[in-house]
Amino acid sequence: MDKWKHGPQRRAIQSGIAALVVAVMVLASLAGSASAQSLLEKIKNGETIRVGFSNEVPWAYPGENNQPLGFVNAMTTDMLKKLGTTKVEPVVTEWGSLIPGLQAGRFDIITGGMYILPERCRNVLFTDPIVKATDALIVPAGNPENLHSYQDVHDKSLTFATGAGYSEIALMRKLGVPDDKIMQVAGPAEILQAVKSGRAAAGSGAYFTMKEFTDKDDSVALVPVGNNYYSGLAFLPNQQAEVDAFNAVLKDYIGSDEMMVSVGKYGYTKANLPDGKTTAELCEH
After folding, report:
1. Which class is 39-130+232-284 in CATH?
2. pTM recorded for the entire structure
3. Among residues 166, 160, 153, 159, which one has the least CA distance to residue 113?
4. Pairing of strands 131-140, 220-231
5. Edge-to-edge order in the sheet of strand 125-126
């Protein structure tokens, strides 16, 4: 008989294994608690808050030292300061990866100026609106196809470029534009290049961004299309407390002198302030 299997040695080893299992479980529990911290807890504990956005001037973009620039980031950092922190880390990703990135825990808030749309409301919680904006087309200088609306793009069976995950995709499909005429690209810079290279007759995105391009590049022109959209900061569906906290700050902050100083250098004016539309209304339609 093997005495090791039934002697004191075995009991000692069993006790050691049991202690190790308990230690591993405790560590796992602590790790789980840390990862499950709410955003408000992270702010209270002085941890860095990660803001996620795509590189879209002037909404949200990284600076030379990776500081979060753009008017949505300016508003977010102002509000975070009021909530108790100045520790902010930007995380830049493609537009189509913003919601998946939030869900995967890569960042804590989406600050990219995301439009509040019903299909997005099923995946994230939005704050109250922080900006009212319109869309715009960019076309070659002189507007050779004489385009003045999305409908014109459809009626002339032209190829149209926009960003993957942009709201314009659903809009064009609703008009009846076939998918082979909708060129989905990574973001604003690729939309511009698609138009400049002639691969697309027109491109579209938020007015602010498209105007930024046409102000700096004489080879393209701006065609406002007049649809009003409203953007908010986006959070995970289980972060209602965070949304409520930001909305409480927004009540006094939105439209204040402090806010307008922060966002004015990015082209945000009083005309871009929300007009009373609520997030609940925007999520319903």
Report:
1. alpha beta
2. 0.79
3. 166
4. antiparallel
5. 88-92, 49-53, 109-110, 234-235, 125-126
CA distance 97 to 20: 40
Q: Which of 246, 260, 284, 255 is nearest to 108 (CA)?
A: 246
Domain ranges (residues) in the chain: 39-130+232-284, 133-228
**Continuous segment of H or E residues that includes residue 72:** helix 71-83
Q: CATH topology of 39-130+232-284 equal to that of 133-228?
A: yes
Q: What are the pLDDT tens digits along the chain (285 aa)?
A: 343 334 444 444 444 444 444 444 434 333 333 345 899 999 999 999 999 999 999 999 999 888 999 999 999 999 999 999 999 999 999 999 999 999 999 999 999 999 999 999 999 999 999 999 999 999 999 999 999 999 999 999 999 999 999 999 999 999 999 999 999 999 999 999 999 999 999 999 999 999 999 999 999 999 999 778 999 999 999 999 999 999 999 999 999 999 999 999 999 999 999 999 999 999 997
Phi/psi for 46 (5° steps) reads 75, 20
8 A C-beta contact, residue 203 and residue 191 = yes
Structural class in CATH, domain 133-228: alpha beta
Residue 55: how many CB atoms within 10 A of its CB?
A: 18
